[in-house]
Amino acid sequence: MSKSIKASSPDATLREKRRADQARDGLKAAAEYEAAAVAMREKTAKLRALRLAKEAKDAKEAADAPPEPPKKKSKKKVE
Description:
Elements: H1 10-64
């Protein structure tokens, strides 16, 4: 069974063009999606590094600071 060769109709040509456009748009959308995902991962990594550096600095400052003197207990007079 072989297909007969016919001149393509205008509708078939439009369908073929639409399919090609959709395929191209799909590839473009996938590339944009992946680029956005990469940018999000980079931003997250940067923010995580900043947060960890701040936490390390705060921990070091807390360790270097002298301990707070104990609070004195007040003596209540019982009458």
